[in-house]
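Entry 12.
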Amino acid sequence: MLAFILRRLIQALVVMLTVAFIAFMLFQYVGDPVTNLLGQDATPQQRQQLRVDLGLDQPFPVQFARFIGNAVQGEFGLSLRQGRKVSALMVERLPATLELATVAALLGLLFGIPLGVYAALRRGTVMSQLVMTGSLLGVSLPNFLIGILLILLFAVTLKWLPSFGRGEVVMLGSVSTGLLTADGLRHLLLPAFTLSLFPMTLVLRLVRSEMLEVLRTDYIKFARARGLPDRRVYFGHALKNTLVPVITIAGLQLGSIIAFAIVTETVFQWPGMGLLFIQAVQFADIPVMAAYLCLIALIFVTINLVVDLLYFAVDPRLRIERSGSGH
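Predicted 3D structure (tokens):
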């Protein structure tokens, strides 16, 4: 177990260093921070002095080492667009993105798993076919189109829900949340459902295929031969083993939801990190772009590590294989 964790930690460190290198290269080849900070009218002496102050006159390895050291401390300099510390901007926007991604992931699991089980147990029925057809639409349609259609229906036509913004929020210490206000929940429904549709359909189709596979195994046939009721066979034995690969997919999808919330946040003008990143790209705000890349990579690496550990704990076959290989 310890060797497994150490191996995963080394892999995570390599990934983070690679992403940090890519983010650092943005400073080298995308725009000129001196020009962005001083403008075109600065004198050569002012430019040189700023390059010395920023450490841009140092050799490449020294600059990269300093960048890594600052990144470990969560420091990426000042936003070229807003003139504020990038770390402060990230801390402000992170709760909104995590709130949206968490609710979207929960919706994906709460609807995807039961619908997948239903589609497997009622295979061939009209409702099962409708569920699978709907899952194809969810996989095929892009997020921005789904979001626009939902806004047109529920915000413009029916006027039931707001079409943009986060609504009223409350502060829990230094963290803002809209989950505790009615207005915040109303603003959250459309973007959360839009963002949850793809992982929901992915989980649905995975659960259905795994459930059908498990139902054909010998131990399920043996459980039925013992006279166990269908409910216990389906939910006590089949579903439990079906959820093992779902853990991996659900964990990785949470990272994807956070990373790819950019489109949904832009459509609904949700004040999260994705919208901040889009604005940074438009204005070539390199410190914000670099911080976003490193933060998303850290989230992916952390989630992947947790998923691997959960997979190791849930599936006894992995423990048996590793103990056998150790001997």
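Annotation: The mean pLDDT is 83. The longest strand covers residues 170-172.
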